[in-house]
Design a protein that fits this description.
By secondary structure, this protein is mainly beta. The protein is built from three helices and seven strands, in the order βαββββββαα. It has a five-stranded mixed beta sheet with strand order 2-3-4-5-6. Strands 1-7 form a two-stranded antiparallel ribbon.
Length: 169
């Protein structure tokens, strides 16, 4: 997801460029490629480029209740500042950014969105992945997926740990 920004770095402050993104990358480190689509707007600032992106993709997750695999759509929106490492006018190296986690523009004036997209994709994956809102999960006794139908386990089976409380009735 490389974008050459050499011309934008030469343009006056406030100049913008719009880019359509339609690429395939591994965003969650599982070795599978995911289609990323959307648009990005690049804004020339005094010493950097501000990137605003609105992207869409989907990832395969495992449901936390029933353990089935399902496709989860992700909407990725972010704003990040990319700092150049080389002066566009004279080719001299620029001082390193104060923050070691800052996104940079490389020596060929190429801005790589891959790491930013990967980080924001991971932030948008739900902490508790559910295949559907009302997922019934698995039967705790036999392990049957209750989304596929009821199991044949007895429903009135009492937990022996509560037997002393049942005697109080």
């Amino acid at each position: 997801m490389d974008i050459n920004v050499s011309q934008l770095l030469l343009d006056p402050i406030g100049s913008t460029r719009d880019f359509q993104i339609d690429e395939t990358i591994d965003i969650i480190g599982d070795g599978q490629s995911h289609q990323i689509q959307g648009k990005c707007n690049l804004l020339r600032l005094q010493n950097s480029i501000l990137v605003k992106c609105a992207l869409n993709t989907e990832v395969e997750l495992t449901c936390n209740r029933c353990l089935t695999k399902f496709r989860q759509p992700l909407k990725i929106k972010f704003e990040e500042e990319f700092l150049p490492t080389i002066d566009i006018l004279d080719g001299a190296p620029l001082p390193s950014p104060e923050e070691s986690i800052a996104f940079t523009i490389d020596e060929q004036h190429t801005l790589d969105l891959t790491e930013a997209v990967r980080q924001y994709s991971l932030l948008n994956i739900p902490m508790k992945a559910l295949c559907k809102k009302d997922c019934a999960g698995l039967c705790p006794t036999c392990g049957k997926n209750l989304n596929e139908g009821k199991c044949r386990c007895p429903k009135d089976k009492n937990d022996p740990r509560w037997s002393k409380l049942a005697e109080l009735k």
